[in-house]
Amino acid sequence: MNAIARRWVTRNSMMAILGLALLASGASDLPTSAQAAETGTPAKQIFGAAKLPAALPARAIGFYSKGCLAGGVAIPADGETWQAMRLSRNRRWGHPDLIALVERLSREAAANDGWPGLLVGDIAQPRGGPMLSGHASHQVGLDADVWLTPMPDRKLSAREREEISATSMLKKDTLYVDDRVWTPAHARLLMRAASYPEVERIFIHPGIKKKICDTWQGDRSAMGKLRPYYGHHYHFHIRIKCPPGVSGCRSQNPPPSGTGCDASLAWWFTDEPWAPAEPKKDDKPKPEKREIRLSDLPAACARVADAAGPASAAEATFRADPVRDFLRNNGSQPSTASGFAPLPRLVPLPVWRPRD
User: Fold this and answer.
1) Taking burial as the number of CB atoms within 10 A of a residue's CB, which of 119, 159, 178, 263 is the most buried?
2) What is the pTM of this model?
3) Strands, E, within the chain: which ranges?
4) Which CATH number fits domain 27-252+261-269+287-309: 3.40.50.10610, 1.25.40.10, 3.30.1380.10, 3.30.540.10?
């Protein structure tokens, strides 16, 4: 075991014991890709059952809504400027570039924007892939949800993380922001997130986009990355580009040029986006909707599904901020999170906290 791994594991021997128990469960209970193909097992059942990541080099595979994740790392439950929510879902795994960016955003927003810290929602499952419930995207470890509720000045209990609800930014039954809950710090946080070159899009509610368009006085060059979409009035969704040099990962097309404070935004305040879709007149019977299967995903996802999990306690990390600490010990903090930045090969496991 090298010196870095020894420091990480011996920091908390009791947590190392827990880590070994989790490692033992690894992927051994999952069907192999061949078994899944034979039985037609939905991909969401395969990836939703994985408790730990694939012990492979970090790689986002496929598209945000049709892919998987190799070598995922978990954002720790607690950092100085963030807390992870809904720990029981086991959805706080991502590509190292995304985890580094979320941690960086939390620190810089706390230092510069009057935002005390992030409450981090769903990122991805340990091996990405389709989820048993909820998101259509979040499959390749490059998407992260962040609550629009600021982090409190205390550590939330495990029960609170499961039961507390995020705060809507809208006036009840309207499309417009409620100024009793919205603050300039919300706008600064969102504009900072959009300013990072790795960020491809930030999904927010149309009412929030309009509020920022109407009130933002600073640099507007990144405002076009704030994309109005359904929902997203209690959290925002960060999507980053495929890391440089990664094969088999497909980024979304860039958003249109400009700020987006134009007719495309005004459309969201008409009846059309919210009207129920009219049924199409078609005499042909509709085929039964089929669940996405492993064979529908990129071929590399079968290898991710079959791969072993971390094999020893030397591969477990139980520290507060693995990216920051690794860089502190092995080089300077880069100006941006990058696929070329030195990152730990060890896989940080989530620290499960007992319920109160």
Assistant:
1) 119
2) 0.79
3) 59-63, 66-70, 73-74, 78-79, 82-84, 93-94, 118-120, 143-147, 199-204, 226-228, 235-240, 316-317, 347-348
4) 3.30.1380.10
